[in-house]
């Protein structure tokens, strides 16, 4: 029997993000005439902030700014850095732009579109003054591939017809020239497109999108360039533009240097130079002067970062529920069998007499066995995998190949970021969800060794064909892997479902968790729409079969749906009253979608990364939602899923154990024993 339990939301805001939250009570800018959607108060305030920032430095102190001009006597003064209190005679280089860091759901995309539309108001005034040369200029918007369609959809929805135009510069849809006076006002492209053009043409190239000075450059999900040593960051920072905007809900993800890369892109003097940033911020932090570093960070944020809390807007109430489910007896028996085998694999990992090369097969198998335990919680008796029903000899053939490497990387990314052994850049599951489509997969071929050493695509490119090596003798083999969830998740999943040619299943065949979901969907009103998220397509396959049995229409949105067909799926879900349920994989549904037509969201299993869950649920609880929202997280009682939920709270220690098969510190075996106990 299923029981719903009210959840208390207790996720704290990171201290560094607290430091940059802005409390400015800004006046509201005028609504741009080219925008037909009425802007909310906070969006008009953001427009005021951006219009001020695009005027350049406010040396007169009228508005908070990094630099201020202080006159010591008539005709003699100096420029004072209000962050560090340093002085200089030379006027700082001009700076226009900033960082929009509002959290998910506050309508940042519409706000940035409104900024571009506000240029039209200026042009109209200029032409009234007989300035025949007044023009809007072109705005370059750089986004992850999943957001290309989102931007086009938002432009179509919010811009008055004929006010201005836009186009893509991506894949096969590339501009021949960007200097044509008849080119669109907004050009949409992707990070990897910019990086590829910069790489192919050479670092000093002045061709394509690098051949002109843009009116404005906007980075959406700007934290993607946080690794300042990356080729992508160098390419993005090489673009020339009058104004520069970084849009990201997480300008600081793991460390202060994340912000430093954004400041380099913005070209804000003197902090575009990482050495100056380190001197005024990072080094203070490292030297025990954290309070002073925080004070400076707050002063800097008050000048160029706009971040308001999610409570800035009043959304309908959201109820977050836990939905525990009991296994059927036969399912529990299968689960216990796989659990026993998993503990055996852990024993091999823990007590192997030989060194790393013997321990490794057990380590990889442990990850697969743990995922198998999780999948049984969803699929029940429909779960089948050769990994769980054949005894695995640690000495058996475990040749490292592309498929095994990809599987190992996917499992690691689900649990924790991986770090490049060469440049130390980190890759997490959120970044992999924003990876590019196959058109630019030449940039996506990273390498993973049998000893789990990762080399990012850019370091592979820098090596020029020289093979990487690990610290072991003999050297472990490396295999190519994709870091894009768009393509990586297309690999066959470890579980197979046998319907014996049938599309339907009888109610007594349904896995316990899926039966619980369908019972809840049946109890909802006919005009209520729901979205169902799962990590695995196989789970969605079983859910789809169960829904067909109950005559509940549904739509699918996963990695097998071609990119060009995805907008049609979303539009049908929004406008077809008979389509009540949308089934999504987290790899496709956690970013870039607005699904406010739905008021219920179901997560079929806990994910190692709670941020990914939050992103998925934000698809329905955001601006535009008019109904009360209910979210439900399913889990099986007395199963490893409860451990995953604990990991969401205390994740780092456990994941460090799972991802360090070669003993990166003392106490490894004790920690692995703790993992064994938790299973």
TrEMBL record:
The lineage of its organism: Eukaryota, Fungi, Dikarya, Ascomycota, Pezizomycotina. Keywords: ATP-binding, Hydrolase, Nucleotide-binding. The keyword Methyltransferase does not apply. One of its GO terms (cellular component) is nucleus. One of its GO terms (biological process) is DNA repair. GO terms for molecular function: ATP binding; ATP-dependent activity, acting on DNA; hydrolase activity. Residues 513-673 form the Helicase C-terminal domain. It comes from Neurospora crassa (strain ATCC 24698 / 74-OR23-1A / CBS 708.71 / DSM 1257 / FGSC 987). This is DNA repair protein rad5. It holds the Pfam family Helicase_C. It comes from the Eukaryota. Residues 89-269 form the Helicase ATP-binding domain.
């Amino acid at each position: 029997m299923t029981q719903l339990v009210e959840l208390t939301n207790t996720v704290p805001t990171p201290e560094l993000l607290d430091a940059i939250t802005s409390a400015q009570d800004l006046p509201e800018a005028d609504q741009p005439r080219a925008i037909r959607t009425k802007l909310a108060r906070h969006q008009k305030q953001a427009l005021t902030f951006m219009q001020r920032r695009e005027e350049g430095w406010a040396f007169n102190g009228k508005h908070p700014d990094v630099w201020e001009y202080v006159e010591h006597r008539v005709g003699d003064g100096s420029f004072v850095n209000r962050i560090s209190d340093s002085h200089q005679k030379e006027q700082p280089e001009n700076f226009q732009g900033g960082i929009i860091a509002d959290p998910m759901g506050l309508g940042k995309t519409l706000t940035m579109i409104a900024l571009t539309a506000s240029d039209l108001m200026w042009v109209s005034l200029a032409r009234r003054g007989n300035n025949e040369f007044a023009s809007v200029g072109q705005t370059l918007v750089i986004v992850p591939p999943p957001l290309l369609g989102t931007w086009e959809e938002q432009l179509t929805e919010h811009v008055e017809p004929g006010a201005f135009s836009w186009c893509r510069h991506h894949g096969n849809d590339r501009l021949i020239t960007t200097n044509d006076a008849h080119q669109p006002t907004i050009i949409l492209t992707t990070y990897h497109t910019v990086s590829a053009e910069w790489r192919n043409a050479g670092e000093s190239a002045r061709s394509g999108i690098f051949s002109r000075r843009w009116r404005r450059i906007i980075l959406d999900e700007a934290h993607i360039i946080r690794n300042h040593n990356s080729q992508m960051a160098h390419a993005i920072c090489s673009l020339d533009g009058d104004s520069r905007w970084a849009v990201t809900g997480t300008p600081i993800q793991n460390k202060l240097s994340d912000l430093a890369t954004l400041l380099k892109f913005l070209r804000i003097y003197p902090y575009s130079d990482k050495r100056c940033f380190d001197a005024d911020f990072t080094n203070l932090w490292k030297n025990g002067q954290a309070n002073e570093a925080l004070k400076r960070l707050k002063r800097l944020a008050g000048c160029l970062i706009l971040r308001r809390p999610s409570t800035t807007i009043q959304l309908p109430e959201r109820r977050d529920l836990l939905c525990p489910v009991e296994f059927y007896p036969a399912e529990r028996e299968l689960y216990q069998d796989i659990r026993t085998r998993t503990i055996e694999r852990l024993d091999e990992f823990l007590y192997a007499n030989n060194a790393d090369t013997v321990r490794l097969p057990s380590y990889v198998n442990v990850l697969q066995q743990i995922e198998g335990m999780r999948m049984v919680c969803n699929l029940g008796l429909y779960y089948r995998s050769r990994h769980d029903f054949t005894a695995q000899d640690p000495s058996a053939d475990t040749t490292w190949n592309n498929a095994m490497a990809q599987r190992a990387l996917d499992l690691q990314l689900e649990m924790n970021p991986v770090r490049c052994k060469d440049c130390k850049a980190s890759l997490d599951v959120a970044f992999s969800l924003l990876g590019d489509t196959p058109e630019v997969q030449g940039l996506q071929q990273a390498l993973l060794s049998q000893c789990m050493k990762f080399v990012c695509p850019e370091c592979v490119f820098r090596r020029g064909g020289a093979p990487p090596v690990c610290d072991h003798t003999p050297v472990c083999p490396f295999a190519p892997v994709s870091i894009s969830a768009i393509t990586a998740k297309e690999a066959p999943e470890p579980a197979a479902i046998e319907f014996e040619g049938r599309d339907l299943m009888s109610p007594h065949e349904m896995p316990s968790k899926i039966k619980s979901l369908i019972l809840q969907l049946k109890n909802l009103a006919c005009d209520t729409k729901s979205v169902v998220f799962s990590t695995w397509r196989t789970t969605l396959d079983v859910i789809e079969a169960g829904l067909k049995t109950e005559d509940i229409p549904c739509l699918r949105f996963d990695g097998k749906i071609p990119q060009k067909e995805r907008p049609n799926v979303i539009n049908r879900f929004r406008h077809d009253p008979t389509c009540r349920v949308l089934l999504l994989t987290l790899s496709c549904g956690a970013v870039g979608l607005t699904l406010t037509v739905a008021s219920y969201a179901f997560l079929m299993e806990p994910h190692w990364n709670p941020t990914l869950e939050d992103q998925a649920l934000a698809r329905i609880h955001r601006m535009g939602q008019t109904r009360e929202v209910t979210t439900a997280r399913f889990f099986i009682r007395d199963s490893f899923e409860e451990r995953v939920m604990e990991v969401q709270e205390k994740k780092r220690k456990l994941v460090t154990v799972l991802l360090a098969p070669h003993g990166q510190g003392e106490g490894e075996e004790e920690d692995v024993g703790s993992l064994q106990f938790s299973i």
